[in-house]
Design brief:
This protein is an alpha/beta fold. The chain has 16 helices and 18 strands. The chain folds into 3 domains: 371 residues, Glycosidases (TIM Barrel, Alpha-Beta Barrel); 60 residues, Oligo-1,6-glucosidase, domain 2 (Alpha-Beta Complex); 64 residues, Immunoglobulin-like (Sandwich). A hairpin with a 2-residue loop joins strand 12 and strand 13. Helix 6 packs parallel to helix 8 and helix 12 runs parallel beside helix 15. The structure holds 1-deoxynojirimycin and calcium ion (CA). Calcium ion binds next to loops.
Length: 530
């Protein structure tokens, strides 16, 4: 197989609402993104991934789509969107969109027709609507639970019926699940794909790609012992991706399909990555991996095995809009030992250098290049529907803490993100992370990110898919990357002590130790030519 433009792509995720606000309503938009395109260009990434761009009541911040053929007016117009794609393409940056096929917004006309055309109307068949159980149908049809907490059913108008009816929503009630057993739904999504591909979009990140179909008869999960076998990952979904793959394959240059896929077993994941289906699946394991050399070795090994079994190159990611920012995941442990944050800084740098040296695709999340931590959002300012569906005893606060807007300019109110109230408040000290401060500081995290991304562009060994000797011993992770004329060992110290190493041919290291210092600091990584 020849080289594809997506094989070693570095992709930068843009969370619309938090990137840059140009029209001063406190929420990011297309004009804001276009105004900051140089930031992305200077980072040196190959592509961007845009969180949902479609018109949406924003009940789940865009993952509740009310029209798949337009752009959310708060973000801008379709015309501006087209111009934005051109802007990125002119700079050689590809554009990946989010597509949300499992559910629509309850405001979408498909659901509105189902709701208003009277019981039993044909539009109801596009959703999953069932009679309730118990006297008068007072209880939901089965015991499925929503990912955001609580039952995954809400009452549906039942006029003139004997029993209360319910509609299924695996997420928030504002996100009714579509009935993928209906072929109208298939056709609609094929049209949606073509609509955006024709506009020049370079591919799609498929939301909840393991969703769509539900087990026949909607059996109680208690019978299965889990939520998976009944609600997710049904065999019919693969025919859909076979069709989608055929569609994207009609386009030149190559388009890309990457799934957000959760499956109960590894074998089930393989099914999505058959040659005639998706090009890639996210790997979420680094988002939940403790600071452990063996742990990282195992995760890397599992990803390489998956690639070996499927031919689909791996995807590495440390943060996204659903998870705790990785600065906060890996740094707080260090508070006692490292009052100046130095070790945390080294760890953070090493994690980027680690993924950048692995074969496959890299997904970065906006703000990680500034070393943004997870923000502490006061409960009264929280917006995430997942927060509002928690029971009182839950510690889970939802996902707002990783979505606080980008700080651009330390000298401006709201760090230059907006002149009005940002949609989520910026915590104290947020200005200190601003691009304006980091831009010209050679030691800033931003310049570190730029330099490593730039290095990967130039150095073939980093992009190379030839990797071996992935090992972990005494808290030291190591592997070797190769091209025809270069061999580089990547060494990373997960321990709390200095580790002696032979550094004669060190190309780069992630502490500010002198290059000739032959101790790898705690948390430090080195690239060493061998
Ligand atoms: C996964 C998305 O990443 C998340 O933000 C969203 O809430 C759910 N899918 C539902 O669409
Ligand atoms: Ca705005």
């Amino acid at each position: 197989m020849g080289h594809d433009r997506w094989d070693s792509a570095v992709v930068y995720q843009i969370y619309w609402r938090s990137f840059m606000d140009a029209n001063q309503d406190g929420i990011g938009d297309i004009a804001g993104l276009r105004a900051r395109i140089d930031h992305i260009h200077q980072l040196g990434v190959d592509a961007i991934w845009l969180n949902p761009t479609y018109p949406s009541p924003q009940g789940d911040h865009g993952y509740d789509v009310s029209d798949y053929f337009d752009v959310e007016p708060m973000f801008g117009s379709l015309e501006e969107f087209d111009r934005m794609i051109d802007d990125f393409h002119q700079r050689g940056i590809m554009v990946l969109m989010d597509i949300v096929p499992n559910h629509v917004s309850s405001q979408h006309e498909w659901f509105q027709s189902a709701l208003t055309e009277g019981a039993g109307n044909p539009s109801e068949e596009h959703f999953i609507i069932r009679d309730g159980t118990g006297p008068g149908g007072i209880n939901p049809p089965n015991d499925w639970v929503s990912i955001f907490g609580g039952p995954s059913w809400s009452p549906f108008p039942s006029s003139g019926r004997h029993l209360q009816r319910w509609y299924l929503h695996m997420f928030d009630p504002c996100q009714p699940d579509l009935n993928w057993h209906h072929t109208d739904v298939h056709e609609r999504f094929e049209n949606i794909l073509r609509f955006w591909l024709d506009r020049g979009v370079d591919g799609f990140r498929i939301d909840v790609a393991h969703g769509l179909f539900k087990a026949p008869g909607l059996p109680n999960r208690s019978g299965f012992g889990d939520n998976w076998s009944a609600c997710w990952d049904q065999p019919e979904v693969h025919d859909i991706y076979r069709k989608w793959r055929k569609i994207v394959d009609e386009y030149e240059p190559s388009r890309f399909l990457i799934g957000e896929i959760h499956t109960a077993t590894r074998e089930r994941l393989l099914e999505y990555l058959r040659a005639d289906q998706l090009h890639a699946a996210f790997d979420f394991s680094f988002l939940h991996q403790d600071w452990s050399s063996d742990g990282f070795r195992d995760r890397i090994g599992a990803n390489l095995d998956l690639w070996n079994d499927t031919g689909c190159l791996p995807v590495w990611t440390l943060s996204n809009h659903d998870e705790i920012r990785h600065w906060s995941r890996y740094a707080p442990l260090l508070a006692d030992r490292s009052p100046d944050g130095q070790v945390a800084n080294i760890r953070y740098r090493s994690l980027l250098a680690l993924i950048m040296a692995l074969p496959g695709r890299i997904f970065l999340y906006n703000g990680e290049e500034l070393a943004l931590p997870q923000a502490d959002v006061p409960d009264e300012d929280r917006q995430d529907p997942a927060f509002f569906r928690q029971t009182p005893d839950s510690d889970y606060k939802g996902r707002d803490g990783c979505r606080v807007p980008m700080p651009w300019d330390a000298n401006l109110p709201n760090a230059g993100f907006t002149n009005s109230e940002p949609w989520l408040p910026m915590p104290e000290g947020w200005h200190d992370y601003s691009v304006s401060i980091q831009h010209d500081d050679p030691n800033s995290m931003l310049n570190y990110y730029r330099s490593v991304i730039q290095r990967r562009r130039i150095e073939d060994w980093m992009k190379s898919d030839s990797i071996d000797e992935v090992e972990s011993s005494s808290d030291i992770l190591s592997f070797v990357k190769k091209t025809e004329n270069k061999r580089v060992r990547v060494l990373m110290n997960f321990s709390d002590s200095d580790f002696p190493f032979d550094n004669d041919n060190t190309i780069m290291r992630t502490s500010d130790s002198d290059i000739s210092d032959s101790f790898l600091r705690p948390g430090e990584l080195a690239y060493i030519e061998i």
